[in-house]
Amino acid sequence: MRSAKDFFRPLAVGAPAPVREVPFRPSRMIHFFDPGNEKMAAKVPSIAPQVDVLLGNLEDAIQADRKEAARNGLVKIAQATEFGDTQLWTRINSLDSPWALDDLVTLVTEIGDKLDVIMVPKVEGAEDIHYVDRLLAQLEAKAGVTRPILVHAILETATGVANVEEIAGASPRMQGISLGPADLAASRRMKTTRVGGGHPGYLVREDPSTSDADAPRATFQQDLWHYTIARMVDACAAHGILPYYGPFGDIRDTLACEDQFRNAFLLGCVGAWSLHPVQIAIAKKVFSPSPADVAWARKVIDAMGDGTGAVMIDGKMQDDATYKQCLVVSELADTLAARDPELAEAYAAAEKE
Ligand code: GLV
Ligand code: MG
């Protein structure tokens, strides 16, 4: 048994006190880069101001013989770069690999004061988060880190999905969860070889015509990820942490990427990964509420006064529930606009129309 009071005690003497609320900082795109790749590393200072989150990737996509170069590269880049209000995250190697322990020890002791969030891949249950939680507290205390480093889990195994609620609530350090559709597809033995997105074979078909059984019948592609994203969103919302769509691997198919990101946004996700600079603008567009939606939300909020009762606006019924829906949109817009002057201008202009 663990007393509720102990949940907010540091897990090591001298470690910073855990957070009680996950700070909501814009994180529309988590932009991945390989810190061991000198060409990519050289671009970090120019990319950082364009993104909400910059993530030094140490896990998949980094070859086994380049793991140390990537880890050391991230230390060098973090020490040399001022990130302003852009967050710095890392994705460490999975806990069943020979590199995860050294990733945590090196990164927290060398650049713990610069790291906002550590993304842990292939999380299967609360025990994985507990392992990282205690270790981080010990390392923070050792390194003199004064604010807790938060933890983000990737949902990418069937066991992880079965345990998603306990993962989301495993520690006050939990910042959020991302869907990892590639590993998850493999773990579930799904038969798609794509990284996210739909599949032409996963569809529903229109009923046959009653007058001509041979007439062509329309088909509609379905979303392979709907169930998992919705479940992840509920687990995150229940525990006050943030849900994200993960990677979309077909870099050239910017339209389908935008659709996949938008589905996630509409279902409650706050951001997605960008694997290539072309996906930065897509995420920015999709995960910022549109100026028209923000103007509408503010119109409803103004008309509803203290939020009780009911009013009709343009023939649509508004009450306590729609007022709350509108607050979600309006508050998100305020937070994003505070960091994005172009967006602030677009929201202000739409309100005047
Ligand atoms: C991401 O890591 C994925 O497996 O999709
Ligand atoms: Mg993965």
Q: Calculate the terminal CA-CA distance, rounded to whole Å.
A: 58 Å
Strand order in the sheet with the most strands: 9-6-5-4-3-2-1-10
Q: Name the structural class.
A: alpha/beta
Under the CATH scheme, the architecture of the largest domain is Alpha-Beta Barrel
User: What string gives the helices and strands in order?
Assistant: EHEHEHEHEHHEHEEHEHEHHEEHH
**Percentage beta strand:** 5-15%
Shape: globular
CATH fold name of the largest domain = TIM Barrel
- Helix % is 40-55%
- CATH homologous superfamily (4th level) name of the largest domain: Phosphoenolpyruvate-binding domains
C-alpha-based Rg, rounded: 22 Å
- How many helical elements? 13
> How can the largest sheet be summarized?
8 strands, parallel
**Ligand identities:** glyoxylic acid, magnesium ion
The overall pLDDT, averaged over residues, is 97
Number of strands: 12
- What is the highest CATH level, the class of the largest domain? Alpha Beta
Unreliable spans are: none
Explain how this protein is built.
With 353 residues, the protein is an alpha/beta fold. The chain folds into two domains: 4-286, Phosphoenolpyruvate-binding domains (TIM Barrel); 291-352, no CATH class. It contains 13 helices and twelve strands. The chain has helices at residues 38-47, 67-80, 100-111, 126-143, 158-162, 164-168, 181-188, 226-239, 254-267, 278-286, 291-304, 320-337, 341-352; strands at 29-33, 53-57, 87-91, 117-120, 150-155, 174-179, 203-205, 219-221, 242-244, 272-274, 311-313, 316-318. The protein has an eight-stranded parallel sheet. A two-stranded antiparallel ribbon has the order 7-8. Helix 1 (38-47) links the parallel strand 1 (29-33) and strand 2. Helix 3 runs parallel beside helix 4 (126-143), helix 9 runs parallel beside helix 10 and helix 11 (291-304) packs across helix 13. The longest helix has 18 residues, at 126-143. It is globular and about 70 Å long. The N and C termini lie far apart (58 Å). The structure holds glyoxylic acid and magnesium ion.
